[in-house]
Design brief:
single chain, 403 residues, Sulfite Oxidase, Chain A, domain 2, Immunoglobulin-like, globular, binds ligand MTE, binds molybdenum atom
Length: 403
């Protein structure tokens, strides 16, 4: 047996010892059976147990239509986000769209302008992919060192769903892209008509016109009945309530690609069209706001993802970054999807600073906060992917590390 296998066996034994306190007495089992009675009747659409309390946290806003709600990452298990807990980001509220009335128009520099109904779109050959969606502003507060109190607030603008839709390239081929066209301007049907410019090369590559999420129609908050899903790109480009695609020879320089979603660098110049979301990870247990009941063996766990493909490795520190140990990764590791990592850890009842770093299939290593700031400065609120450290206090409380 390899050394690592032996030591993880030993760890498992200790974990076993930790749960013996919970062994069921025969007496209790009998009592439970005696009280069992007929349950409630079945229903047409599922609900979770009333004992489950995980909810999205919503940042206070004077205009609640322009808000964000955050996925409770600490309460999530596995790698998929239930649609009911997918983060939300709206600039002008959630429009109510009748799918029978809805049209997707494809116009501009095309041979055959199209107006497609949802029924026509659903008849086209479809694909299904499990993909992360992350707001470019996720963990933006970490730039300012005033770090979020818990993992939901610091990292909750990211979720992972199974999306179903039609390859955008198929519809563009059908419309016939004219020579000279280089951009696709996507526009939403919400009140702000949110727009983004997408280079034609990406549009012909892997973008989806998505109508399905986790096995059913996309939720209204996620863009019902149709949205763009752009693998690996910042959430903002994934235009919801999609109703227009215009082929042009130039970018539009829309609000959300000029005034917003640009990265102001230390030299005063702004990076623009920074679509890619780079490798990132965060420990979700133990994480800020939680308390460990006492010393003993715990399973550290969290989520890693990369806009550039598969997560190759996740390393964990429990000594503030001095040493790193490789975590176990949940298979299958899908490209641009949540990858769950796990590592047994002995909490000795002494202060410890824990953190994770993801390495993706391109060899890219998630940077420390310091290394990131060295290059990008602190003027930008977007594209923060620095290593997140949590402090586990001797008494068991978990908080942020004051940087
Ligand atoms: N039409 C439209 N599309 C939109 C938005 C919007 O407000 N209107 N918000 C964008 C932003 S900033 C993000 S991060 C994602 C959020 O998608 P979600 O609400 O499904 O999580 O959608 C993007 N697409
Ligand atoms: Mo966003």
């Amino acid at each position: 047996m390899k050394d690592s296998a032996k030591s993880s066996r030993r760890q498992m034994f200790r974990l076993g010892a930790a749960v013996t306190g919970g062994l069921l007495a025969k007496r209790e089992l009998a009592a439970q059976e005696a009280t069992s009675k007929l349950g409630i009747p079945l229903g047409p659409y599922g609900e979770r147990s009333p004992f489950e309390k995980a909810i999205r946290w919503t940042r206070d806003s004077k205009t609640p239509e322009t808000g964000s709600s955050f996925t409770p990452l600490a309460d999530s298990v596995g790698t998929l986000t239930p649609s009911s807990l997918h983060y939300e980001r709206h600039h002008a509220g959630i429009p109510t769209i009748d799918p029978v009335q809805h049209r997707l128009i494809i116009h501009g520099m095309v041979e055959r302008p199209l107006s497609l109904t949802m029924a026509e779109i659903r008849r086209l050959p479809s694909v299904t992919r499990t993909l992360v969606l992350e707001c470019g502003g996720n963990s933006g507060s970490e730039w300012a060192a005033k770090t979020g109190a818990d993992v939901q607030r610091s990292h909750g603008l990211v979720s992972c769903s199974e999306w179903t839709g039609v390859p955008l390239s198929l519809v563009l081929q059908e419309a016939g892209v004219k020579p000279g066209a280089a951009w696709v301007i996507a526009e939403g049907a919400d009140a702000c008509r949110m727009e983004r410019s997408i280079p034609l090369a990406k549009a012909m590559d892997d973008i989806l016109l998505a109508y399905g999420q986790n096995g059913e129609a996309i939720r209204p908050a996620q863009g019902y009945p149709l949205r763009l899903i752009i693998p690996g790109w910042e959430g903002n480009t994934n235009v919801k309530w999609l109703h227009s695609l215009k082929l042009t020879d130039q970018a539009y320089m829309a609000r959300d690609e000029t005034a917003k979603y640009t990265d102001l660098m230390p030299n005063g110049k702004a990076r623009i069209f920074t679509y890619d979301m780079e490798a990132k990870s965060v420990i979700t247990f133990p994480s800020g706001g939680q308390t460990l009941p006492g010393p003993g063996v715990y399973e550290l766990t969290g989520l890693a993802w990369s806009g550039h493909g598969r997560v190759e490795r996740v390393e964990i520190t429990t000594d503030g970054g001095a040493t790193w140990t490789q975590a176990r990764l949940q298979e299958p590791r899908l490209p641009i999807a949540f990858t769950r990592f796990r590592l047994p850890w002995l909490f000795e009842g002494r202060d410890a600073v824990i953190g994770s770093r993801a390495i993706d299939e391109t060899g890219y290593v998630q940077p420390t906060r310091e290394a990131l700031i060295e290059v990008r400065g602190v003027n930008s609120g977007y594209h923060y992917n620095g290593i997140k450290l949590w402090k586990v206090h001797a008494a068991g409380m978990v908080t942020n590390v004051e940087v």
